[in-house]
Design a protein that fits this description.
Elements: E1 22-29, H1 36-52, E2 57-59, H2 87-99, E3 102-112, E4 115-123, E5 129-134, E6 140-141, E7 144-145, E8 159-161, E9 166-169, H3 178-186, E10 191-196, E11 199-201, H4 207-228, E12 231-236, E13 238-241, E14 244-247, E15 251-253, E16 259-262, E17 269-276, H5 278-286
Parallel strand pairs: 1-2, 2-3, 9-10, 10-12
Antiparallel strand pairs: 1-17, 3-4, 4-5, 6-7, 8-9, 11-14, 12-15, 13-14, 15-16
């Protein structure tokens, strides 16, 4: 037996709270509108709703100003790209400063002529631009042809020290890589935000297949929360676009993998959750995964595959 727990360990109400540090967050789950301008206006409306409900940090879904255009390889979507910081981030900076909220916004970044990234900008509660994270893992699968559009990120895994919490941002396909979550947590992230665009093929009607895919997606991210002792918040889009039906289900997990808030599959939502950052220390002291890491044994993780004799 590795560790012992109080009998009521899994009851949230029993976790010590004398030093509580509660941060209210919101995830915006939306259906895409017709134009980037309409999507930006809708996002601003949802951010206002979140702030009015007490949210201090608001995360938008992946590529929130556009449809998920990566279902095909076309040249027209490159017209949607913009600098980061740029027009969309400037509009969000004004809003963040007005409302006193932190905003995480995923955008199609035009870095230079012919060079593009899938990028998340982080704006602090005073309206200042804190920086950006460029998506590191780029998929190339039927319906998700992102390698045609995006260059892999080159800024590394980052944390952003906002007014309310130290947060990490990873994007969609990054969700499946424990290394990304670990490195971001090791840099001090208390909440991992995942702007996301994931769903089923609209032609897939098997409930068994659909449920197993969505369950795998959740399980993977809950494991990041548990292994690193951090909150995890995934903001997915909803609605049907082309041959993809996005499965929504945006959710927030506590540091022991318990879902504390979750949106449904079909509807748009502003999902609110309270994250007590003091629980991070509580969970990590009971299951000290970071303490017991054998870092001197992990060098082989830098190899693609261990198929050669040592």
């Amino acid at each position: 037996m590795a560790c012992s727990f109080p009998q009521d360990f899994f009851s949230i109400k029993t976790i010590p709270s004398m030093n509580s540090h509660v941060v209210s967050i919101a995830l915006v789950q939306s259906i895409s509108r017709s134009t980037p301008a309409e999507n930006l206006a809708e996002a601003c409306l949802r951010i206002r709703q979140a702030a009015a409900s007490g949210a201090q940090i608001v995360c938008l879904q992946e590529l929130f100003t556009t449809d998920y255009f990566c279902q095909t390889e076309e040249y027209t979507p490159f017209e949607y790209a913009e600098p980061v910081p740029g027009p969309a981030t400037e509009a969000l900076q004004v809003l963040a400063g007005e409302l006193g909220v932190v905003i995480v916004a995923s955008l199609f970044e035009a870095r230079a002529r012919g060079l593009f990234h899938n990028t998340a900008a982080v704006i602090d509660a005073d309206g200042s631009y804190l920086g950006k994270y460029r998506k590191m893992h780029i998929p190339d699968d039927p319906g998700f042809y992102e390698k045609f559009y995006f260059t892999p990120g080159d800024l590394g895994y980052q944390v952003f020290r906002t007014r309310y919490a130290t947060i990490g941002v990873l994007i969609c396909w990054d969700q499946w890589y424990p290394e990304a979550a670990r490195l971001t947590a090791l840099k001090g992230a208390e909440i991992l935000f995942y702007p996301t665009a994931i769903g089923w093929a609209a032609s897939e009607h098997s409930d068994e297949v659909r449920n197993s895919q969505r369950a795998a997606w959740k399980t993977m991210q809950l494991s990041h929360a548990i292994a690193n002792g951090v909150y995890v918040a995934a903001a997915n889009r909803s609605g049907t676009e082309g041959n993809l039906e996005f499965w929504g289900n945006s959710f927030v997990s506590d540091p022991f993998g318990q879902i504390i808030a979750e949106a449904d599959h079909r509807n748009e939502a502003v999902l609110l959750a309270e994250c007590d950052l003091s629980r991070i220390g509580f969970y990590r002291s009971h299951w000290p995964f970071l303490r017991d890491r054998r870092i001197e044994t992990y060098a082989e993780l830098q190899k693609r595959y261990l198929d050669e004799a040592v």
